[in-house]
Amino acid sequence: MNDDAQLDVDRPSRADSLAGLERLARGQDGVATRAQARSVGLTDDRLRRLVAAGILARIGTNAFRLLGAPSTPLAEVRGLVLDVGGDAVACRATAAALHGLDGFRLAPPYDVAIGRGRHVNRIGHRIHTVTRLPDADRTTVSGIPVTGVERTLVDVARDTRPDQVTAAVDGALRDLLTTEDSLHRRVAVLRGPGRAGVGAVVRALEGLEIT
After folding, report:
1. What is the pLDDT of residue 174?
2. pLDDT at residue 10 above 90?
3. Tens digit of pLDDT for each residue in 152-165?
């Protein structure tokens, strides 16, 4: 077999490539990234043709949704995090809603955190930069990278009313998303200049201990 023939054998067909992308997307609320499309043999030109044909819908710079896939809030957040890519995680109010914290609802604009030094903008959403986000402050919810419960509580406490912070902390403890010991330990680590939410979480914990 000559080299050209071997290339034809090795190269996936258009139908196989699209089927591969569909398999990937089905496990991600119908969303797939440009990199995932390339991994199954779809070129950027082919992606443009699929968008023009109405088979895919472009939902960001680097992400696409299959025609007919439900556009739920969960799918929207997953699509945004996949589109931003890299070290991106859902954070703040969006993370709070994903964790099911009391008082938070999953709705746009969504919050996503990325490492400092990256320059990303997504119209209609809030992209935050963080100096570092250690593994202790990361988890997943429904397969979506998200800040951990303790970090999320501290982050949302900076611009949330005290009674709402108390309700969120109380709900997290009630639902066993964290414990008082775990929250105290993580808050102690997160103390530092400019992290205004730490004091609000500590006050919420102290208030719950008194009652």
Report:
1. 96
2. no
3. 999 999 989 999 99
Q: Is 123 helix (H, G, I), strand (E, B) or coil?
A: coil
Task: Kindly list the distances between the CA atom of residue 54 and the CA atoms of 34, 50, 61, 155, 194, in Å, as whole numbers in the listed order.
Answer: 17, 6, 17, 39, 47
d(CA 98, CA 104): 9
Question: How open is the CA angle 196-152-125, to the nearest 5 degrees?
Answer: 95
* Cα–Cα distance measured from residue 88 to residue 102, given in angstroms and rounded to the nearest whole number: 24
Residue 22 tokens read as 């569909």
Residue 117 backbone phi and psi in degrees, to 5: 110, -25
Burial-class residue 78 by CB neighbours within 10 Å (0-12, 13-18, 19+): buried
Rounded to whole angstroms, how far apart are CA atoms 146 and 87?
10
> In whole angstroms, how far apart are CA 193 and each of 33, 89, 153, 205?
37, 23, 17, 21
**Digit-coded pLDDT (tens) for 27-60:** 999 999 999 999 999 999 999 999 999 999 999 9
Q: Return the H-helix or E-strand segment holding 114.
A: strand 111-115
